[in-house]
């Protein structure tokens, strides 16, 4: 009797083991991407805040002035740069608010809900960040090089500090864009492979 | 005996029915999104080709000229517009090449492979299309309104046709961007819900 009782017990243990071991592997892989997602999100927040702050504080007044006019350049002068500051601030806020969902994805790596939510909103804010970064980049390029055909002169000879600061902001915003692309691709892979 | 034989037979039929009916519904839903994906892709191709062609043919020569100089504006004058034509052409080529994968997704709505492939590349080309659209939009805005602080004059008073054509190209490119966002979101939903 004792042997017959032992046999079903051990088979039960084996079954439990296989149940516990089998889903643990893909779960671990998914948990890894979720943790990576959280870390990348922190980096994107830092880059987005740096971009918005660097552009928002760009302001240079030249030391000489005429009777009627003092030469000053700030991000306020350009509609594109205003859009840049606003949209990078919105993107940074979204990324901060998305951190709880990223944590939920770490705790429950198999639930597709939070990842789906994140991938859809990430795509939308990727587009917002890309559009503001590209628009600002084209203005910064114009400020550096000017355009002969339309007689738009390069202003970076005069406003060197202003140009350096706005260029830095554009670089930071493109880092945000690259990180957001990585986030979307990683979420897609984590959702797609079961 | 005859009744005991009948019972398992009918229960088998019921089981088969439930097996056949249950996966048919999500399959039909997924097939619908795959067909929608194909149709939206055709629309995005048309919009991207329209944007590239409209920008690429924008060229206006003013009827008056000085001794040394004839006033002419074409997309060649602006580095941003050159980037716009090239990247919209690349996006259109990608969308044409992605059609076979979209057809595979229609034939096999449950296979995650083609959809994963499409969502990752769609995200990359969404970023490319958005950056060129936004960069061109900021230059078009400048051409319309100018910028007082930097003494960049609005050129649309002189080059009216040129401005109208480039503005149209920017609108077409933003239609491409919106369709690509829809494609990414639809693919994500189709992959995520099982």
From TrEMBL, chains A, B:
InterPro entries with a match to the protein in the record: CASP/CASPL (IPR006459), CASP_dom (IPR006702), CASPL (IPR044173)
UniProt entry tagged with the keyword Iron: no
Metal-binding is among the record's keywords: no
Protein's membrane topology: Multi-pass membrane protein
Spans through the membrane: 38-58, 78-104, 116-143, 169-191
Chief localization: membrane
Coiled coil (UniProt feature): none
Superkingdom as given in the UniProt entry: Eukaryota
One GO term of the biological process aspect: cell wall modification
Keyword annotations: Cell membrane, Cell wall biogenesis/degradation, Membrane, Transmembrane, Transmembrane helix
Localization per Swiss-Prot or TrEMBL: Cell membrane
GO cellular component: Casparian strip; plasma membrane
Residue ranges of domain Casparian strip membrane protein in the record: 31-179
UniProt function note: Regulates membrane-cell wall junctions and localized cell wall deposition. Required for establishment of the Casparian strip membrane domain (CSD) and the subsequent formation of Casparian strips, a cell wall modification of the root endodermis that determines an apoplastic barrier between the intraorganismal apoplasm and the extraorganismal apoplasm and prevents lateral diffusion.
Assembly information from the UniProt record: Homodimer and heterodimers.
PANTHER family reported for this sequence: CASP-LIKE PROTEIN, CASP-LIKE PROTEIN 1U1
Family statement drawn from the similarity comment of this UniProt entry: Belongs to the Casparian strip membrane proteins (CASP) family.
Name of the protein: CASP-like protein
């Amino acid at each position: 009797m004792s042997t017959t009782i032992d046999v079903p017990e051990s088979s039960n243990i084996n079954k439990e083991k296989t149940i516990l071991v089998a889903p643990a592997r893909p779960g671990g892989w998914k948990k890894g991407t979720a943790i990576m997602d959280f870390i990348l999100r922190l980096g994107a927040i830092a880059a987005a805040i740096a971009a918005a702050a660097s552009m928002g504080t760009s302001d240079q007044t030249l030391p000489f002035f005429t009777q009627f006019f003092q030469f000053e350049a700030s991000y306020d002068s350009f509609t594109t740069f205003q859009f840049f500051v606003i949209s990078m601030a919105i993107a940074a806020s979204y990324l901060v608010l998305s951190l709880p969902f990223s944590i939920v994805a770490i705790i429950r790596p198999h639930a597709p809900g939070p990842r789906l939510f994140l991938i859809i909103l990430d795509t939308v804010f990727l587009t917002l960040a890309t559009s503001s970064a590209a628009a600002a980049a084209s203005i910064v390029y114009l400020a550096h090089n000017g355009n002969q055909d339309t007689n738009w002169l390069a202003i970076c000879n005069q406003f060197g500090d202003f140009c350096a600061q706005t260029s830095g902001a554009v670089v930071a915003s493109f880092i945000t864009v690259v990180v957001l692309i990585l986030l979307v691709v990683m979420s897609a892979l984590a959702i797609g492979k079961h």
